[in-house]
Amino acid sequence: MRDIMQTFFDFVAIFFVLYMVGYASFLFLSVTVGSASLYGAKRRRL
User: Fold this and answer.
1) In the chain, alpha helices (H)
2) Confidence band of 18 (pLDDT split at 50, 70, 90)
3) Rounded Cα gap, residues 40 and 23, in angstroms
4) What is the model's pTM?
5) CB neighbours of 38 closer than 8 A, spacing ≥ 6?
């Protein structure tokens, strides 16, 4: 039973790390694309 619990917690830990890396990448790309789009819109208005 203890081995099953340890395997489950290992899986959850790996999933959590991958999820956080994916989420951080998504946020980084969102900020990058959003700032580039705002910069482009500002340059067109000037």
Assistant:
1) 2-45
2) very high
3) 26
4) 0.72
5) none
Percent of the chain with pLDDT over 90: 93
Determine the Cα–Cα distance for residues 43 and 23; give it in Å rounded to an integer: 30
Report the C-alpha gap between 25 and 41 in whole angstroms: 24
SS3 for 24?
helix
